Amino acid sequence: MLEPKLQKIADLLQGIRPEFDFSNGANFIATGMLDSFDMITLVDTLDKTYGISIDGEDIVPEHFGGLSAIAALLGRYGVRP
Prior knowledge:
The protein has one domain (about 5-75): ACP-like (Non-ribosomal Peptide Synthetase Peptidyl Carrier Protein, Chain A, Orthogonal Bundle), CATH 1.10.1200.10. The protein is mainly alpha-helical. It has three helices and no strands. It starts with a helix and ends in a 5-residue tail after the last helix. It has helices spanning about 5-15, 35-50, 65-75. Helix content is about 45%, strand content about 0%.
């Protein structure tokens, strides 16, 4: 079972790519679960959900490889569980 913050991120990802299980800890980029278009869609979703604006320089595969990486990125923008 995922902690609530990670579960919320997994739920948002599920809305973008419902065919994948984002709770399994895989590297989403390396495994092809997310592509560049999905990353942009996720950034838009995160911005709207959390009321933030993720800078273009932060839209890199390293920040979207897994739930922890996405949570760390959100933390940089002041999003807390």
